[in-house]
Amino acid sequence: xxxxxxxxxxxxxxxxxxxxxxxxxxxxxxxxxxxxxxxxxxxxxxxxxxxxxxxxxxxxxxxxxxxxxxxxxxxxxxxxxxxxxxxxxxxxxxxxxxxxxxxxxxxxxxxxxxxxxxxxxxxxxxxxxxxxxxxxxxxxxxxxxxxxxxxxxxxxxxxxxxxxxxxxxxxxxxxxxxxxxxxxxxxxxxxxxxxxxxxxxxxxxxxxxxxxxxxxxxxx
Length: 220
Prior knowledge:
Blueprint lengths: L1 H42 L13 H46 L3 H16 L8 E6 L6 E9 L2 H7 L4 E7 L7 E7 L4 E2 L4 H9 L17
Antiparallel strand pairs: 1-2, 1-5, 2-3, 3-4
């Protein structure tokens, strides 16, 4: 019976002892190169006269130095990891962008899609900022559209309309393709819906429905 208890205690104690030994070894290995420098700094502070329960001031300085070094190494490692991932991620993005720009036919589609997305979500210009309901594909139905800008002057002259607007009608579920149509201003219903919400509505095939009141006031 005594032997069984001893073996049970050994099974519990031995892994704990090995774990503590390994942890202390790693801590000493990581902190040893910096200990002298940090101890000198802490020794010049009021900690040299400070004891904590069973720990002397020398022990407080030593263990405090190890904690500071470990925290510093953790922050440094974290910073290097973030920096490395950021550079690696940007390198991959730039390499992929360069590769797609070189592939015939694909580069045309990619560049056009990229320009549309940048205009929709990055550009500070007024293009694609106004969401409208446009009569499409027939006068009895409506589609969400984005006002690109005023139509070319030659189109206005040909239609004898000074309020002709270019409207992009995105397709579902890929909003980077669609139809470019021209409408008279009075044929459009202007909405207070944000461009981002309109794109979400289109991409989700109508599942994500932003609730915004409609208005007939034009922002163009």
